[in-house]
UniProtKB/TrEMBL annotation:
It is an enzyme of class 5 (isomerase). One of its GO terms (molecular function) is D-ribulose-phosphate 3-epimerase activity. NCBIfam families: PRK05581.1-4 (NF004076), rpe (TIGR01163). Binds 1 divalent metal cation per subunit. Keywords: Carbohydrate metabolism, Cobalt, Isomerase, Manganese, Metal-binding, Zinc. It comes from Streptomyces nymphaeiformis. CDD domains: RPE. This is Ribulose-phosphate 3-epimerase. One of its GO terms (cellular component) is cytoplasm. One of its GO terms (biological process) is pentose catabolic process. Substrate binds at residues 7, 63, 139-142, 172-174, 194-195. The gene is rpe. The active site is at 32 (proton acceptor), 172 (proton donor). InterPro entries: Aldolase_TIM, Ribul_P_3_epim, Ribul_P_3_epim-like, RibuloseP-bd_barrel.
Length: 227
């Protein structure tokens, strides 16, 4: 089943509690953490995640676009995140970090920037609960979807199937009604959407529409047959 994770990067930061409530029916709230080092932008950190976790019943999916996630990622679990994603390009010991995130009670996820191939990390997949394929360069919301990432999504789905893993495959960047079906057909089942949700007149309806499109595309996708 397709999961829709609205990105609060596109929400009104002065009204985060209200914006969290506005996306009723969302599976997770996607929280983009940027440190102005790993990516050229600065957003929010542990205190905001703590406050948001208290303000909503929707679980938080924290995407850490930061340096030294080995040090910082466990703090986001303690702050209330239900899923924590670190970038493999920034992690010193990704297996150890994934195991620590899981040991603290959250789902462990690893993200790949557009130029980072999946194949060198095939052996790490059993250590993860989710893999994030970035479909834009991380750092800013509102970017155009990179179609050249679709083959990478397909190859990743093939590796997940090859190993018989119950591993979620997330895409983030430019996901909208015009692109979500291609992502689902290629193998993604978790979709981060920012402006496509929070830029809509009715964010909750936008979540439902995106999910319907993704599920329709998944139903006819070759990878999902017998899944």
């Amino acid at each position: 089943m397709a999961q829709i994770n609205p990105s609060i990067l596109s929400a009104d930061f002065a009204r985060l509690a209200d914006e969290a409530k506005a996306v009723g029916g969302a599976d997770w709230l996607h929280v983009d953490v940027m440190d102005n080092h790993f990516v050229p932008n600065l957003t929010l950190g542990v205190p905001i995640v703590e406050s948001l976790a208290r303000a909503t019943d929707t679980p938080l999916d924290c995407h850490l676009m930061i340096e030294d996630p080995d040090r910082w990622a466990p703090q986001y679990v303690e702050a209330g995140a239900g899923s924590v994603t670190f970038h493999v390009e920034a992690a010193a010991a990704p297996v150890r970090l994934a195991r620590e995130i899981r040991a603290k009670g959250a789902r462990a996820s690893m993200a790949l920037k557009p130029a980072t191939p999946i194949e060198p990390y095939e052996d790490l997949l059993p250590e993860l609960d989710m893999l994030l394929i970035m479909t834009v360069e991380p750092g800013f919301g509102g970017q155009a979807f990179l179609d050249i990432m679709l083959p990478k999504i397909r190859r990743t789905r093939e590796l997940i199937s090859k190993h018989g893993l119950e591993l979620w495959l997330q895409v983030d960047g430019g996901v909208a009604e015009s692109t979500i079906e291609r992502c689902a057909e290629a193998g993604a089942d978790v979709f981060v959407a920012g402006s496509a949700v929070y830029g809509a007149a009715d964010p909750a309806a936008a979540v439902a529409s995106l999910r319907a499109r993704a599920e329709a595309a998944t139903a006819s996708a070759a990878w999902a047959c017998g899944h």
